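Quick one:
INPUT:
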């Protein structure tokens, strides 16, 4: 590795705004120069560090990418790790959370090999913030704890204060306000002892946020004004966007909507200059509430549309899955590294044994025999662990899928559903206030009300299909009956037979079995062209049996694998997850029979 670590760190953590006054043209010209690597990487690092200070995240990513390529060409491991993390930070603030996660995990892997604990702690902190943003609070706290332990071991007071603030936000989101305040106040004490203004401003801002939730408006307002004064002295635009935004929310809660709008618009102007996407979304949402409370529903709807446009792009299901997959890949790589180290140790023992055979034939033979037995046990143990990890990974994917279904269902029910209901109420009020002079107008109003009713019903249907209340409250049998009752009996008659299902199964097992049976019914409806269907469910203490048959068109058994689309694959993967067995019996024109057997305790 090149000896550039000291130069790189010195420039990267320089807390000065001199970079902001350096003309970018002269530094950009350096990219095409033939300067020595040390000078080249130092200048490029100075450039993208400046953009990080100025919160110009597009330029940060652009120049960071150039610097990363140069560092990789020179195999500068420390520089690669820190630049990779910086690019991740730029993507984090732009709302590209899956890309940010990929860069953070790569930086952690490199820094773990390099054994640079200080840089590792910084990266753990960034990972904690990312998982806090995606609402994975246990994993967020795990990364914060890793960073905090490093700062304790290295006696880094500023680092400890930072983690106390950051992790306090997690407890605040979890509504554990006492623990959040304890952490914020401990961090404030550290910052005041060190007379570190930026740390003081962060801690006061966090404490004020809790006071705002607790409706201690006077205490919160004083602290927010202190924070604004500090940020303005430092000309910290990044901090000011949060400070003015928090002050705007406070005035909104107090009912002073003029001041609330003023503070929020100041914050929004700064966020737009910085292209800070997530902050803009939060401010649009806060402005929606201000305008609703003022009675200006047209303005509220305008800001609501702007908020949803950003939120839909930030928190997509695909991004959440990609982050989860990246973390699984990282953890798997860590386990593989541990296995390689174990295999290396075993191989070393083998060479020592073989070296001793020439001198001690008899003893060597006995030792070799014992070693072979040990290797056999190790192989069994290793295979067992691999199977265990595969099962855990499958379980994690299914649990994540169910959580995502639940989240989307709640969003549809509590968000879109309530908005549609509010729209219907407003339209009803408007209908009573308007004078309808013609049959066409009356018909248009009735059609509009009918469309809203149908939309509400559709939202409820989708929400309940994603996460049926019957399954959560009453169990598998009630949920299946509820789903069957929704099927048009004129198109498909379903005969449900039950045996030994008086008690409930384990919740996770019930959820998986419900999805399997639901998918079987959907497949018959979509593909079988059947008029009758029989579902027999039985629980025999140790075994759950599902026998499903239809009188549809069937298909050739030899083409079962070829015909397995998403639906059949989902059924098979879920049954295998439960350690069960799945068998099809079918032929053209003779319907299809599905036999499912799952062991249950």
């Amino acid at each position: 590795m090149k000896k550039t670590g000291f130069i790189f760190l010195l420039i990267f953590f320089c807390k000065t705004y001199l970079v902001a006054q350096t003309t970018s043209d002269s530094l950009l010209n350096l990219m095409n120069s033939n300067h020595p690597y040390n000078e080249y990487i130092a200048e490029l690092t100075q450039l993208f560090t400046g953009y990080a200070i100025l919160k110009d995240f597009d330029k940060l990513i652009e120049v960071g990418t150039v610097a990363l390529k140069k560092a990789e060409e020179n195999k500068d491991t420390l520089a690669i790790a820190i630049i990779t993390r910086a690019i991740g930070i730029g993507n984090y603030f732009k709302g590209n959370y899956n890309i940010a996660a990929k860069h953070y995990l790569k930086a952690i892997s490199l820094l773990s090999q390099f054994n640079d604990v200080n840089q590792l702690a910084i990266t753990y902190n960034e990972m904690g913030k990312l998982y806090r943003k995606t609402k994975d609070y246990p994993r967020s706290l795990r990364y914060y704890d890793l960073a905090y332990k490093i700062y304790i071991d290295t006696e880094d007071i500023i680092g400890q204060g930072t983690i106390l603030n950051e992790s306090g936000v997690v407890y605040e989101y979890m509504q554990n306000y006492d623990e959040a305040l304890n952490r914020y106040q401990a961090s404030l004490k550290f910052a005041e002892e060190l007379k570190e203004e930026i740390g003081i401003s962060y801690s006061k801002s966090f404490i004020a946020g809790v006071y705002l939730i607790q409706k201690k408006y006077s205490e919160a307002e004083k602290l927010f004004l202190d924070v604004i004064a500090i940020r303005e002295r430092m000309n910290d635009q990044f901090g000011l966007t949060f400070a003015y935004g928090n002050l705007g929310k406070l005035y909104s809660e107090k009912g002073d909507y003029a001041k609330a709008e003023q503070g929020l618009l100041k914050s929004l102007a700064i966020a737009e200059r910085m292209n800070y996407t997530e902050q803009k979304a939060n401010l649009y949402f806060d402005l929606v509430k201000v305008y609703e409370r003022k009675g200006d529903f047209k303005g509220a709807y305008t800001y609501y549309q702007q908020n949803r446009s950003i939120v839909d792009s930030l928190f997509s299901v695909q991004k959440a899955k990609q982050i989860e997959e990246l973390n699984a890949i990282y953890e798997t790589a860590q386990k593989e590294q541990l296995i390689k180290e174990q295999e290396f140790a075993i191989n070393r023992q083998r060479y020592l044994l073989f070296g001793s055979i020439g001198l001690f034939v008899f003893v060597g033979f006995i030792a070799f025999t014992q070693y072979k037995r040990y290797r056999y046990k190790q192989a069994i143990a290793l295979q067992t662990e691999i199977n265990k990890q595969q099962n855990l990974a499958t379980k994690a994917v299914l649990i994540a899928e169910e959580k995502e279904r639940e989240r989307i269902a709640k969003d549809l029910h509590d968000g879109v559903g309530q908005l549609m209901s509010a729209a219907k109420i407003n339209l009803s009020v408007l209908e009573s206030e308007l004078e309808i002079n013609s049959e066409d107008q009356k018909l248009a109003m009735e059609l509009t009300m009918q469309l809203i009713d149908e939309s509400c019903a559709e939202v409820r249907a989708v929400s309940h299909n994603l996460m049926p209340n019957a399954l959560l409250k009453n169990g598998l049998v009630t949920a299946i009956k509820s789903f069957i009752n929704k099927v048009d009996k004129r198109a498909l008659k379903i005969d449900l037979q039950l045996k030994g299902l008086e008690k409930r199964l384990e919740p996770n097992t019930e959820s998986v079995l419900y999805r399997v049976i639901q998918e079987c019914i959907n497949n018959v409806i979509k593909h079988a062209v059947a008029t009758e269907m029989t579902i027999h469910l039985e629980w025999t203490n140790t075994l759950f049996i599902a026998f499903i048959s239809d009188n549809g068109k069937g298909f050739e058994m030899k083409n079962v694998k070829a015909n397995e689309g998403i639906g059949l694959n989902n059924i098979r993967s879920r049954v295998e997850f439960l350690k069960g067995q799945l068998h099809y019996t079918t032929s053209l024109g003779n319907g299809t029979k599905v036999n499912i057997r799952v062991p249950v305790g």
